[in-house]
Amino acid sequence: MEARQSIELDILSRNTDTDQYLTFLLAGEEYGIDILRVQEIKGWDNVTQIPNTPKYIKGVINLRGTIVPIVDLRLRFRLDPISYGQTTVVIVLKVEGEKGMRTMGIVVDAVSEVYNISDDGMKSAPDFGHAISTDFVRGLATVDDKMIIVLNIDKLLNTSVLEQIDEGVVASTL
């Protein structure tokens, strides 16, 4: 009877105003994305390169019959490239574009944690004016004395990126 009451109290005490975020590392910084967008996490494997695409688009993979474009976030953020290692992973995501939901993968240095972050715990991204676009930064959160950059994956992998991939796929099949 006491265990049941403890579980009920635990459920009642949880903050329902929080969302869960999967965090990953890039160049020592921790980034977060809405865990509801994560389809799966895969180890790095070779991709089929698509000609005439930006360098940050590594290519495509065939994931159980679905062609999935792979974006290297290090290169997308203009960070120094590194050799992929044992911790390098591809996070397969559902991204919302103008044509509906689409599956895409992002290459990151390593997966970190899953955190519950409330809306109150998230601060707005700083305004750098027109010099630096931070449209894809949903906010900044502090968890366990660490700053986490929470990304808006829909804006980061926006439709222009999707269109470039589509054009590359079409051009490579001609």
How would you characterize the overall build of this protein?
It contains four helices and eleven strands, in the order αβββββαββββββαα. The chain has 174 residues and is α+β, with helices and mostly antiparallel strands. Strands 8-1-2-11-10-9 form a six-stranded mixed beta sheet. It has a five-stranded mixed beta sheet with strand order 3-6-7-5-4. A hairpin with a 2-residue loop joins strand 6 (89-97) and strand 7 (100-108). It starts with a helix and ends with a helix.
Concise account of the structure shown:
The protein has 174 residues and is α+β, with helices and mostly antiparallel strands. It contains 4 helices and 11 strands.
Query: How do the helices and strands follow one another from N- to C-terminus?
Result: HEEEEEHEEEEEEHH
How much beta, percentage-wise?
35-45%
- Mean of the pLDDT scores? 83
The count of DSSP E runs of length 2 or more, i.e. the number of strands, is 11
- Spatial order of strands in the largest sheet: 8-1-2-11-10-9
What proportion of the residues is helical, as a percent range? 10-25%
Set out the fold topology.
Layout: H1 2-13, E1 18-26, E2 29-34, E3 38-43, E4 57-63, E5 66-72, H2 73-76, E6 89-97, E7 100-108, E8 110-118, E9 122-123, E10 137-143, E11 146-151, H3 153-156, H4 159-173
Parallel strand pairs: 2-11, 5-7
Antiparallel strand pairs: 1-2, 1-8, 3-6, 4-5, 6-7, 9-10, 10-11
